[in-house]
Design goal:
Length: about 400
Amino acid sequence: MERRTAPVARGPAPFGPPESEPGLPVLPELAALLAGAASVEGPEPVGGGPALREAACGYWARRGLPTDAVHVAAAPGAESLLLALLAATGGDILLSRPCAAWYVPQTRILDRHAYHAPVPAECGGVPDPFALLETVRRVRREGGDLRVLLLSVADDPTGTIAPPELMHEVCEAAVEEDLLIVSDETYRDTVHDRGGAVLLSPAEMLPDDVVVLSDLGAALVPPAWPSGIARFPHTPRGAELHAATLDALSGLRAVLAGPVAAAVTHALAEPEPVTARRAAAVRLQAVLAPALHRTVTAGGVLARPPRAGTHLYADLDPLRPALTERGITDSVELEDHLTRRVGAPVPGGHRFGDGPDGLRVRFSTAPLLGRTDDERLRTLTAPDPLELPHVEEALRLFGSALAELNGGPR
């Protein structure tokens, strides 16, 4: 029997960040809609009701992806959608390294294998195309059953965007190897510089081979209202996948609560208050994320400049000698130390598919927003958020924590 390439660890590894992160206060219009629908007793139908699915079609059409409602599924979060989709596809899954913390747990629940291929130098979210081909062929040669490539066009954890030419290469390689492409587009509406960044969905290139997945908590509704949507190919294979995914969602009883569905349907139509809040939040992150990046890299840490979302992924290996002197030798110990030191979650690279021996962590702009709703609203509306005392203090805390790790006083 041939030796099988070892997949990602499937033991009792942590499933996600140690704590949730605070966000901006709930948009009053959405809060009123949720409250107004509180008397709705029943849940949505499995996969979402007609109004919600039509709203999802409009959302995608405005992004250059014409969609019919029969090819849409909605569920309480992208996690349950991915779980149901993987149950429908069968087989193993290929991920980039690093990748979002919530990907691997879905494969573990299904007792499937997840394999990683390294990302290229310029971005995260997609595997290097040559590494993809090498990994797929090696895994299959050694008995693996790879069927799905899960990638991210605007990436968590790295905060980067894959260039269109690279996305083309990756998707063509995946199709060449008969992989279904699942495109996680959760952060596509959080790009910091719309004028300077070109975001290309794989579904625009290869519509017959791509399922689009999006968790709406990143840009449209509060993260505490779990909701996600999926768009399936307009093909017989896509119809089969859609039906099998709905069967799995039904078995999981993964349906949206009626009040949440009402708010999600409204948000998907993108009325002016929703788009205005989203635009303001993106403008804010376009200021906070680069400021956090400057603070982190000034401490001798390596990190790609963030271009979307609220996170950046940092490599502290240049500080390894100083960290070793402090008894910090892996990402688990580094996470524990930095989380205590800055008083906010700083999850280690072991949560994102990297080995624990690496000294990598994900930093978030959440601590810069403020501790109260009042502070967060002032941060959102300030002409220059970096002049606010609580933002200055949060950046100072990050800087001093890294300076200490780089040989400063304990």
